[in-house]
Amino acid sequence: MNKKTVRDIDLKGKKVFVRCDFNVPMDENQNITDNTRIVAALPTIKYLLEQNCKIILASHLGRPKGEFKPEYSLKPVAKELSKLLNKEVIMANDVIGEDAMKKASELKEGEILLLENVRFHREETDNDPEFAKKLASMAEVFVNDAFGTAHRAHASTAGIADYLPAVAGFLIEKELKFLGEAINNPERPLVAILGGAKVSDKIGVIDNLLEKVDTLMIGGGMTYTFFKAQGYEVGKSICELDKLDLAKELMEKAKNKGVKLMLPVDTKVGKEYSADTESKTVKSTEIPADWEGLDIGEETIKLYSEELQKAKTVIWNGPLGVFEFPQFAIGTNAIAKVLADLDATTIIGGGDSAAAVKKAGLEDKMTHISTGGGASLEFIEGKKLPGIECLMDK
């Protein structure tokens, strides 16, 4: 972490623009169903309050595609934040309009203003310089604390840093510390568990991890592309036929690098893709032609668990089966439980794996759960994240 954080500059009494990630799930009545991301922003906000800052918060929510849509309003977030901070959060009715500008200019020390959803403007995702300049005109310092969107070069995550001194908040600092150490300076053995549907989503990740890890465990839908590449029947399982050569190359690379690449030895298959379909467990090399693989089997759970007992650092990204269906969530839940009890650094890379760990009620048992699925993947892949590159170096 060679970037400056809020600790590294004098913020006393300053007007600070903070990009947060308040992209939280809501039900049809605009009730927030999981406030994890809001809670994750609190340490930075509280620190700024201690410095008597005038605080302007900004975030996106969903994908309103550049127009105002009331169901994507941040009003429920302002309400939740007020409750968590035990302090009124002023809500602006727009982003760079009259209301936002007036409220921002009148802010007093220790007051908090939340702007409306930045993605109500197409200029946000276009990283339009004029839009970024208007955002910057409200404040004296830019703090990026939105790790979930750090892989996007948008106006409020990167563009604004052209016009203001820019530093990281505590959440970004924490994410980079855990992910950075796990990848670049881990206590070994380092084991990575990769799930999810497609190999194509994780090519760069697998490629980069093969340079770093001692063991790589594969699960989820991408498994069947690896099996097919070895000439096995995969039935109706999800499979990327255009990626078979790539799967072979990755297996070859693992062998050359001395990385232990583990694939499921048995598979729980279903007659069809549904929650209550008929299911059975078969050897991974013997998937029947009209069935589809939907989870790892008992034998695989046992093998993976034994291997994980030796680990000192574990990175996990992507579920190992269709965890939305209880009968095919067994593999994912079992591995989550193993990680919860390990005497090791355990890092969950956001997205569906984080959801699975939460669903199992084990989030408190993990060393770190990333708030950004896409961002953590690109970081693990070794890509530069625009929302972090734009911050001042120490």
Written description of the protein model:
By secondary structure, this protein is an alpha/beta fold. Helix content is 34%, strand content 15%. The strands form three sheets. Strands 3-4-2-1-5-6 form a six-stranded parallel β-sheet. Helix 1 packs across helix 2 and helix 8 (223-229) crosses helix 9 (244-257).
Topology:
Blueprint: E1 15-19, H1 36-50, E2 54-58, H2 75-85, E3 89-91, H3 98-105, E4 112-114, H4 122-125, H5 129-136, E5 141-144, E6 166-168, H6 170-184, E7 190-194, H7 203-209, E8 215-218, H8 223-229, H9 244-257, E9 260-262, E10 266-270, E11 279-283, E12 292-296, H10 298-308, E13 313-317, H11 330-341, E14 345-348, H12 351-359, E15 368-369, H13 373-380, H14 386-389
Parallel strand pairs: 1-2, 1-5, 2-4, 3-4, 5-6, 7-8, 7-13, 8-9, 13-14, 14-15
Antiparallel strand pairs: 10-11, 10-12
